[in-house]
Amino acid sequence: MRGRSTHRARFTGACRQEGVPEEVAARFWDAALAALPRHGAWFPRTELHQGGVLGLRVRPAPPLRSDIRVLLPPRPDARRAPARKGPDLPALGELRREAQREGADDLLLALPSGVLTESTTASLLWWDAGTLCAADAGRHQLGGVTQALITGLATARGIPVRTAPVTAAELPGHEVWLVNALHGIRPVSAWIGTGVRAAAPEQAARWRELLRTLEEPLPPTRRDAGPADRPAFEGRTTT
User: Fold this and answer.
1) Which residues make beta-bridge pairs with 192?
2) Can you say how many angstroms the Cα of residue 212 is from the centroid of all Cα atoms in its chain?
3) How many CB atoms are located within 10 Å of the residue 202 CB?
4) What SUPFAM superfamilies is this protein classified in (predicted)?
5) Which of 55, 57, 85, 141 could form a disulfide with 117 if both were Cys (CB 3.0 to 4.6 A apart)?
6) What per-residue confidence (pLDDT) applies to 132?
7) What angle do helix axes 4-17 and 22-35 make, rounded to 10 degrees?
8) Is 157:24 a contact under the CB 8 Å cutoff?
9) Cα–Cα distance between 168 and 73 in angstroms, integer?
C-alpha cells in the first residue's frame, strides 16, 4: 500500500464532516486494514453509509494497465461533491462506461470554463519540459493521494512542480499522466476522437520505479478483534 496515512486521514476527515467522530472512523479504518486478505489481487474500499454505518467492500482487482486512452469532456462536470470521494461514484461510473463505448478507457472532466479537473478515476499530471505540472481546479477536484506522493517525490529531488489550470487544448505535445492508487502512473496513449497523437511516455517508467519505493506492507492481521472492531460487510465483494 502507498500513502496509507494520507488515505486514512482523507477517509476519517470525510467521516467527521458527516458527523462520525474521527476516533471512531480511525478505529474502524485500522480494523478494516487488519481484516483484508493477505493473498490474491483485491481492490478494497472503506465506505460510510446512511446512518453512520461504516463498511468495508472487498472487490476483486481489475486488470492493471500501463497506459490509458482518454476521451475529452463531452459536457461540463456536473458532480455534486467533487472534493469528496463517494457521493458521485454512480454518476462517474456511468461517464466512464460512456467513454468505453467510444473506445476510450476513461474521460476527463472539465468546468464550464473548459478548465480540466481530473478524470472519473484519476488525477491529471503532465510534463512541461522539466517541470511536473498538476491540474488546478480549486475546490472542484478531489485531493489525489497518488498525485501528492508523486509531486512529493519530485520536490524531494529538486524537480520543479507547478500547479496550474489547464484546458484540453494545452495538453497536446506534452507527456500526460492519469494517476491513482490502483494503477499508479498511466501515461495517455491516445486522445480518442481528436486525431491528436499522444506524446511518447519518456518519463513514466522511471517514475513508476520511484513510486514503488513508497510501497509499505499492510499491518499485521488482528485475530483478536472484538465485535465492535470488526468492519461491517467484511468479505463482501462486488464487480
Assistant:
1) 71
2) 16
3) 10
4) D-aminoacid aminotransferase-like PLP-dependent enzymes (SSF56752)
5) 141
6) 98
7) 140
8) no
9) 9
The answer to whether 71 and 102 are in contact (CB under 8 A) is yes
Instruction: Match 496515512 to its residue by C-alpha cell.
Output: 5
Grid cell digits, residue 26: 480511525
Please name the fold of domain 68-212: D-amino Acid Aminotransferase; Chain A, domain 2 (3.20.10)
Question: Which residues are registered as beta bridge partners of 128?
Answer: 131
Per residue of the chain (239 residues), give pLDDT as tens. 899 999 999 999 999 999 999 999 999 999 999 999 988 999 999 999 999 999 999 999 999 999 999 999 999 999 999 999 999 999 999 999 999 999 999 999 999 999 999 999 999 999 999 999 999 999 899 999 999 999 999 999 999 999 999 999 999 999 999 999 999 999 999 999 999 999 999 999 999 999 999 999 888 876 544 444 445 443 343 32
For residues 34 and 226, is the Cβ–Cβ distance under 8 A?
A: no
